[in-house]
Amino acid sequence: MSRIRTCSVLAAAGLFATAVPATADQPGQQQRHVLLVSVDGLHQSDLAWYTAAHPQSALAGLVGHGTSYTHASTPVPSDSFPGMVGQVTGGNPATTGVYYDATYNHALLPAGTKNCAGVQPGVLVDYTEDLDRNKDSVDAGQGLPNLPDGVLKMTGDPRTLIDPAKLPVDPRTCKPVYPHQYLRVNTVFEVARQAGLRTAWSDKHPAYEMLSGPSGTGIQDLFTPEINSVVGSGDWTTDNAATQRYDGYKAQAVLNEIDGYDHSRTTQTGTPAVFGLNFQSVSTAQKLPVSGGQPGGYLPGGAPGPVLRSALDFVDRQIGAFTAELKRRHLDKSTTVVLSAKHGQSPIDPAALTRIDDGALLDGLNAAWRAAHPGTPDLVALSTDDDAMLLWLSDRSPAATSFAKNYLLAQSGNGNGITGAAKPFVHSGLTAVHAGADAARYFGVRPGDARVPDLVGVVVPGVVFTGGKSKIAEHGGASADDRAVPLVVSGTGRGTVETGAVETTQIAPTILRLLDLDPRSLDAVRAEGTRVLPGLRE
């Protein structure tokens, strides 16, 4: 095991107690806990604004009693999957193999393949709500009564809610590849489990069973109500009040776990050593043009608008409930709260928004390719375009990747801005395009890697690829608005600030150090040299 002799954060979290299997906590017991809270979309600037405006808030309390890293960055692409995977593995996509929630793999076989001999490889790897047995139900097809409020009775093993017929197939075994099997490295949950500690997590799709790691056993209690299921006239993300209600279920699960139960409050299990959740409410508030008759996103100048302020208030209340319950249970001295975000959201400045129809761009690219190469299939095998352009191509040759790059850089036209009025763009809204071997180098992998995108387009700040006007922000790109997220390790009692650049991948080894476990137990930490967050030593 790795230990630090003198460390204010770690000592506050009970660093010097022996790591033992989790049991029900009693007053004075010194078992340590880490509560990880990830708030999708939250920028460091949002946290600074909120704590200044609400100095008595729960968020201000975390900052005031912790170490704040004011220049923290997420991985690239700044999507939910690589962002969350990075926090619990210590690795970037080149190491984890996870570039987005929906990607393409040139080595796997199509879903449903039963006889693998002679089947041409190359398939969409879709680890989204599309895997659910029933993506329209908040319980993902478990068949629970009294939904949606009965969703807390959802299984803690969401792998059972994934339809294996929708999974890509491994040609070596001719068996479906579950999300946890796709991850190339282990997670903090697995390391904790190997040390006999209890683990739990709450997130937005059953596909987040990936976080259990390659063993599939890292998270003992994984609560994953489906956020893209039907509620009212849309899904939970189409109205911010609905998103807050949805997040409330996950927050209740965490409160139940603080009290020493499983997420459903059915079985006494002991408070987990590593647990937490992902909040969606801030992200929804940033994306929606209007919700509940109020404008979403930011005001001119960058202050949160009314819907976003409501979402920040909601998250603050939930965090306040967590800290109050930890104190009531006498766990506040032995628990470190880590606050961060999987990703930010772009743009913060409404005037910077340029919405561009990526469908028209890619249709044009495919048409131009077929015209130049009669009888060939579409060049674009898969596109993932939010506020970056990631393309996987059916032809990976230098000629094909150069063709795609040159075509996109030659396109201009009109998108639309924050008011919906026409707004011109050039070069497909891109400032740079990395294609073929250059795309592999951009991510730091070898050319020909089966998972890496064949083309990466870096957008002009403010560009969002969408065919309509239903959203005013997105994530996935490499801009500061996408990547500049908060990172607070609360427990020092000092309110210190670290201004140096850090990455959210450093959360993973820090969690293990807080639990007096060896950070180098993580594969990605060894591969990338990911360091424990600085400034925690006296």
Automatic annotation (TrEMBL):
Key word Signal present: yes
SUPFAM superfamilies cross-referenced by the UniProt entry: Alkaline phosphatase-like
Database matches in InterPro entries: Alkaline_phosphatase_core_sf (IPR017850), Phosphodiest/P_Trfase (IPR002591)
Domain of life: Bacteria
Signal sequence residues: 1-24
UniProt KW rRNA-binding keyword: no
Keywords: Signal
Full protein name: Type I phosphodiesterase / nucleotide pyrophosphatase
Source organism per UniProt: Amycolatopsis saalfeldensis
Phylogenetic classification of the source organism: Bacteria, Bacillati, Actinomycetota, Actinomycetes, Pseudonocardiales
